[in-house]
Amino acid sequence: CELVDPATGRREAWSVSHIPETYIHDNPALFDPVNEPWPGGTQHQLSTVDIEIMTIIDQVTAHMPSTAVAQLWDLQPGVPMLRCRRISLDQHGRRVEISDAEYPADRTRLDFVTPLTSWDTSERPSVRAQTRR
Fold first, then answer.
1. Model pLDDT for residues 82-101, shown as the tens digit of each residue
2. Rounded Cα distance, 132 and 81, in Å
3. Alpha-carbon span 69 to 50, nearest angstrom
4. Phi and psi at residue 17, in whole multiples of 5°?
5. Cα–Cα nearest to 17, from 73, 82, 84, 110
6. How many Å apart are CA 19 and CA 46, to the nearest integer?
7. What's the whole-model pTM score?
């Protein structure tokens, strides 16, 4: 998949996704390019064969592009590329999709949201009870 900014003609994102054929062979519609883009994306596609994605792992690394890659992306000198590997695990812990995407660092924003569980103060010992004199 390639995303190009229509206003500038500049490449904004590129990705490729791998799903084992054995996981999706029961739904022939998943193999028909006429159905792309699929409403609801990959998660909906997988749900049609009773696969529910439960965990997504994003691994982000940076690297300096070659001259040819910098030209393809219209990068200024010194701008790195970001590479994101996304691993999707289903309800049984199987890797059901691996996708690799690349983004230019000068026009990409990464947001990391960490939901935290509230501390139940009724179950936590007080600081005073832990301090010995």
1. 999 999 999 999 999 999 99
2. 53
3. 39
4. -120, 140
5. 84
6. 9
7. 0.77
